[in-house]
Design goal:
Elements (H helix, E strand, L loop, with lengths): L1 H34 L6 E4 L4 E7 L3 E7 L2 E6 L3 E5 L1 H9 L17 H4 L3 H5 L20 H10 L6 H5 L1
Antiparallel strand pairs: 1-2, 1-5, 2-3, 3-4
């Protein structure tokens, strides 16, 4: 009976042990990653800034964020050390293995239908308004508004109508 009452506490303690163990493992991996930083490495800070490592010391990192912009960061503020390929892709937009032009998506949908609509119209465009079935009071012709007003009974003083 006493084992059943202690079972939830045993499970809770075991879960806490596993969580702290995985947190320590992630922390150790982050420390190793930061220790692998070398001048010239591309990094991303935990704030999302991309820069190149210029100098690494015990607790700080000097980053080159652009021409004439050098920033001193705490070493633990580095979120990721990037490969050269990944850094160039993100910062400079350089892709190393570009796909062929056949995989490029066109700007319009003409290639999806198989017909080229721009060739059929010869540059002329239809500027006719499209009737969506919704009428506004401003869209009614003046004659229709007058006819509507004539159909409604005219209102006058309540005394003259009552007599």
């Amino acid at each position: 009976m006493s084992l059943l009452t202690l079972l939830p506490f045993i499970v809770l303690i075991g879960a806490m042990f596993l969580m702290t163990r995985s947190a320590k493992k992630k922390q150790q991996q982050a420390i190793e990653m930061r220790n692998q930083m070398q001048p010239g490495s591309g990094v991303r800070t935990i704030g999302g800034m991309y820069a190149t490592v210029k100098e690494v010391s015990e607790d700080t990192v000097l980053l080159d964020a652009g021409p004439g912009v050098e920033l001193l960061f705490a070493k633990n503020s580095i979120g990721a050390v990037l490969t050269d390929e990944e850094y160039n892709r993100i910062v400079h937009g350089i892709e190393h293995d570009l796909q062929s032009d056949a995989d490029v998506v066109p700007d319009d949908a003409s290639s999806l239908t198989g017909t080229d609509e721009s060739a059929d119209t010869d540059g002329a465009s239809d500027d006719k308004p499209i009737d969506l079935g919704k009428k506004d009071a401003d869209d009614e012709p003046a004659d229709a508004a007058e006819a509507k007003a004539e159909d409604e009974p005219k209102k006058t003083d309540g005394d003259s109508e009552a007599k």
